[in-house]
Amino acid sequence: xxxxxxxxxxxxxxxxxxxxxxxxxxxxxxxxxxxxxxxxxxxxxxxxxxxxxxxxxxxxxxxxxxxxxxxxxxxxxxxxxxxxxxxxxxxxxxxxxxxxxxxxxxxxxxxxxxxxxxxxxxxxxxxxxxxxxxxxxxxxxxxxxxxxxxxxxxxxxxxxxxxxxxxxxxxxxxxxxxxxxxxxxxxxxxxxxxxxxxxxxxxxxxxxxxxxxxxxxxxxxxxxxxxxxxxxxxxxxxxxxxxxxxxxxxxxxxxxxxxxxxxxxxxxxxxxxxxxxxxxxxxxxxxxxxxxxxxxxxxxxxxxxxxxxxxxxxxxxxxxxxxxxxxxxxxxxxxxxxxxxxxxxxxxxxxxxxxxxxxxxxxxxxxxxxxxxxxxxxxxxxxxxxxxxxxxxxxxxxxxxxxxxxxxxxxxxxxxxxxxxx
Length: 422
Ligand code: HAM
Prior knowledge:
There is one protein chain. The chain is α+β, with helices and mostly antiparallel strands. It has two domains: 14-169 and 227-316, Bira Bifunctional Protein, Domain 2 (BirA Bifunctional Protein, domain 2, 2-Layer Sandwich); 327-420, Anticodon-binding domain (Rossmann fold). The chain has 15 helices and 16 strands. The protein has helices at residues 14-33, 47-54, 59-64, 83-92, 137-153, 171-185, 191-199, 210-215, 228-244, 288-291, 306-315, 334-349, 363-373, 383-388, 409-419; strands spanning 37-38, 44-46, 67-69, 75-78, 102-111, 123-132, 159-164, 249-250, 262-269, 278-284, 299-305, 327-331, 354-356, 377-381, 390-395, 401-405. The strands form three sheets. Strands 1-5-6-11-10-9-7-8 form an eight-stranded mixed β-sheet. A five-stranded mixed β-sheet has the order 13-12-14-15-16, with helices on both faces. Strands 2-4-3 form a three-stranded antiparallel β-sheet. A hairpin with an 8-residue loop joins strand 9 (262-269) and strand 10 (278-284). Helix 1 runs antiparallel to helix 5 (137-153), helix 2 (47-54) packs across helix 4 and helix 5 (137-153) runs parallel beside helix 9. The longest helix is centred in the first third of the chain and has 20 residues, at 14-33. The relative contact order is 0.11. Bound molecules: histidyl-adenosine monophosphate. Histidyl-adenosine monophosphate is lined by residues 81-83, 112, 114, 120-121, 124, 126, 128, 130, 257-258, 278-283, 285, 301-305, 307-308.
């Protein structure tokens, strides 16, 4: 039997993880300058955290969660997203009592039982950030700016779509107006949208069905129903984005697939992705902390798929830094091969990246391997070098070769390491 990784999941091999680590490094650098601290929560949580947090009527909760019962009979779920777990943790550890604003970020795997396709997996990875404690539009603008900065640093061009989805003071009136409109076209809507007309009418605007889209083209939009507070908040967020020079498109039909949003909702989309064009999305969720039994606490956040980001980078032939050994040691006979192994260990103890042959290959094959790996220097040692305790050191970039005494090798490479060895 040939075992394979489960459908919708992927192995990341060393050539892949090098790109991932590079991207994660940039995310962490941006998080550091914005002063966000990393939070790591468990991979699974009690199912109710997601059901209550994300909303029973959403696709995620309704169809996509990996839920199981443990031996104690508790219903647990592999996290499909991180906002609800972060808020659970925020409440559990009373983080709100320690500072006026908690700025948290995460990077890690999420799980959704969706139909796999390009850019859509069952285990995927998100990076995201949550700013918990203030309802100030500067927090909305900061969250958007961080995503913008990460994409800019990676040279990714994307479109920011933004909307306000109102709050409990104005959404019910909009919901009613939308429901009235949808009832007028009810018979022609897809069965899914018919059901949602009753349960979650705003999600009908997000239907992928072309006929639903056509029928709802002239549906009322939330922006016409915003309370003055929500309207002010939206205007101020946009004004901040204007002054920061972040371009955006107002999309009055943008509704996100999770129910916790209030006021600002946004998405970054990329033309380099196919039908799964959302690079990332987020928004404000002022009711979630209370929804999960905490004190009313405003918050705003964002999360993005790392696989989708990498798809875009690969498409535009992004040049990832390549990792290469500083030194490749070539031994010519048994004695020099043994020396090469011991010397490699000493190099490594001194922080010098060293590689060598483990397969007893010829000198020519070893040189070829050193080239392939992109080693900056090659050390050649045979019988006569062993006798004189002196190695031949070849600079593969300049093509020059010089003799270096065995006991000076570490110092030789340490000084070069600081200068030019990558
Ligand atoms: P979301 O829109 O469900 O939001 O997911 C955010 C991003 O995760 C998507 O835009 C996409 O890039 C990626 N993603 C989602 N599902 C998959 C999948 N099956 N395969 C590959 N990538 C996927 C949230 O998760 C919210 N928690 C965002 C947020 C944070 N809102 C406030 N704070």
